[in-house]
Write a structure and sequence with these properties.
Length: 83
């Protein structure tokens, strides 16, 4: 009996998960690109249903899950501040 190896997972990103290049700007580690500050990693617990809904919206808008959430909440905050 031999040891069975698991098939390797593909680490290829979906088109909406790929980083979009910004013309005339080189990506540098530790330098913010889209916003005035660097993003930090946070952990949230969500139901699988909500995650699949968020993923669907993110794919429709060709954004990553993280960027979709960021833009969505920035829009909500802006609308709540503007009378």
């Amino acid at each position: 009996m031999g040891i069975k190896k698991r098939p390797k997972k593909s680490h290829a990103r979906k088109p909406n998960q790929r980083k979009r290049p910004i013309k005339g700007q080189k990506s540098l580690r530790g330098k913010p690109e889209l916003y005035d500050e660097l993003k930090q990693r946070y952990s949230f617990s969500l139901t699988p249903t909500l995650v699949s809904i968020i993923d669907g919206f993110a794919e429709q808008t060709n954004l990553s899950r993280s960027e979709y959430i960021e833009q969505h909440f920035r829009k909500i905050i802006k609308e709540s501040r503007d009378p």
